[in-house]
Design goal:
single chain; 430 residues; 13% strand; alpha/beta; three-stranded antiparallel beta sheet
Length: 430
């Protein structure tokens, strides 16, 4: 069985010392070999330390021989971790994106009401088009690939081909319901750089999960998939999308208990987004007090000794707060490529900057990056939802994301809020 152990207290302090010392020694040859001038070597280290300082709210978790600092930061000390560090060696132009969420298929046997792909109708993009883009992304500096569907194990050959295109410079996480998963498939993907599998756990109650996913076998499939991952020694993680009430009626605590029982290494808390299935109806409002409450819960489970045995929590409302990273969409740190080939800023923002089946990826990507300079604090998935709804009704749109033309009506003059403090500080270190 793979050993999962959280790093806290004195062990955490010693780990941070080791982390910084190891990074310094690892990149020292870049100075001696002339890759970086003395000045830029110092700036590189300052940038990297600034970035790492924004991860201090996380619970660090040791998975086997490696330690994870954050959901989207590859485990230390892997080749993917050091490849991610190289992001901060870029001094000309924008810092490269290091995370890509890629949907390999829209195939799925469930019908979750909140699904952000609920209206993404269309044929899966050809692998001969997708695979070169995946390789190109890795060459651009992407070090964390999050592969999903639909359900990717339902089109296993596609999933395997995409995994096979990614080498040790990046980690591969797969989002799954467990449907179509087998021990043999997990073992094969593990040899192709599979790092972890993330399941959805929106409730700890089997009957409620079945009702939510509209299948009487959803819970059993989930449990079976978790067991298969443990057999294959593939780390298990979860994501949970809870409405406001779930953080007050004990559902959050029950999910954390269940995640610990399932021996998860990490759980991602996703704030409900007005996208896909929830675009028209919208999502329950979270007041400032509610957001503070969720933040307090996450921090308690991450740092209070009483919860030392619980999985690490990665909470979007903390990661995307102005004092941390703000909105990281649009290639600032991450972007989304849907199953049809649409390049989207984020899975929760139903806009397309172009489709790789119709246009060169470089052209599409440059168009998107230009629209996100400089990075801003505003959560665009929420800010843009009313305008997206208006365009859908005005143009009788039946399929999401909005096409390139309609999307431009939104991003041409949008207000992305104040520039995010951390990216502004990084830009000054040149």
């Amino acid at each position: 069985m793979l050993t999962i152990r959280n790093t806290q207290g004195l062990s955490r302090c010693l780990f941070l010392v080791r982390l910084k010392a190891t990074i310094f020694v690892h990149f020292l040859p870049c100075l001696f070999q002339g890759v970086l001038s003395p000045r830029r070597f110092v700036l590189f280290l300052r940038r990297l330390l600034l970035f790492l300082s924004k991860l201090q709210h996380n619970k660090f978790v040791r998975i086997g021989r490696h330690t994870r600092l954050d959901l989207y930061v590859p485990s230390f000390p892997t080749p993917a971790f050091y490849a991610g560090c190289r992001k901060f060696m870029t001094f000309a132009g924008d810092l490269p994106c290091i995370t890509a969420l890629i949907s390999v298929t829209s195939a799925c046997r469930y019908a979750c009401p909140h699904c952000y792909q609920r209206l993404d109708h269309g044929k899966d993009v050809a692998l001969d088009t997708l695979i070169p883009v995946v390789r190109q992304l890795q060459d651009r500096g992407v070090t964390f690939f999050n592969l999903e569907g639909g359900e990717p194990f339902l089109v296993y050959d596609r999933l395997k081909r995409v995994c096979g295109a990614i080498d040790a410079r990046a980690e591969v996480w797969v989002n799954s319901t467990g449907d179509g998963m087998t021990l043999e498939r997990l073992q094969e993907l593990k040899r192709l750089n599979l790092t972890a599998v993330m399941f959805s756990l929106h409730t700890a109650d089997p009957a409620r999960l079945n009702a939510f996913m509209q299948s009487d076998r959803a819970w059993d499939t989930l449990v079976r998939g978790i067991d298969l991952c443990h057999q294959a020694e593939v780390p298990v993680a979860f994501n949970a999308c809870l409405t406001r009430d779930g953080f007050y009626d004990g559902e959050f605590e029950r999910i954390m208990d269940k995640a610990r029982e399932f021996q998860a290494c990490l759980i991602q808390l996703i704030k409900p987004k007005p996208a896909g299935g929830w675009l028209e109806a919208g999502t329950p409002e979270f007041s400032r007090q509610d957001l503070d409450h969720v933040r307090d819960l996450a921090q308690r489970y991450n740092h209070d000794r009483a919860y030392a045995s619980y999985p690490a929590i990665s909470a979007q409302i903390i990661e995307e707060a102005p004092e941390h990273f703000g909105c990281t969409a649009g290639g600032t740190d991450r972007f989304y490529l849907n199953a049809k080939g649409d390049v989207q800023p984020c899975e929760f923002l139903n806009l397309s900057f172009g489709n790789i089946a119709d246009e060169d990826f470089d052209t599409i990507y440059a168009r998107m990056r230009k629209a996100f300079v400089p990075p801003g604090e505003t959560w665009l998935c929420e800010a843009c939802a009313p305008q997206i709804r208006r365009l859908i009704k005005a143009h009788r749109v039946m399929n999401l994301p909005l096409g390139k033309g309609l999307s431009e009506e939104i991003h041409r003059n949008w207000n992305r809020g104040k520039p995010t403090e951390v990216y502004s500080a990084l830009a000054k270190l040149r």
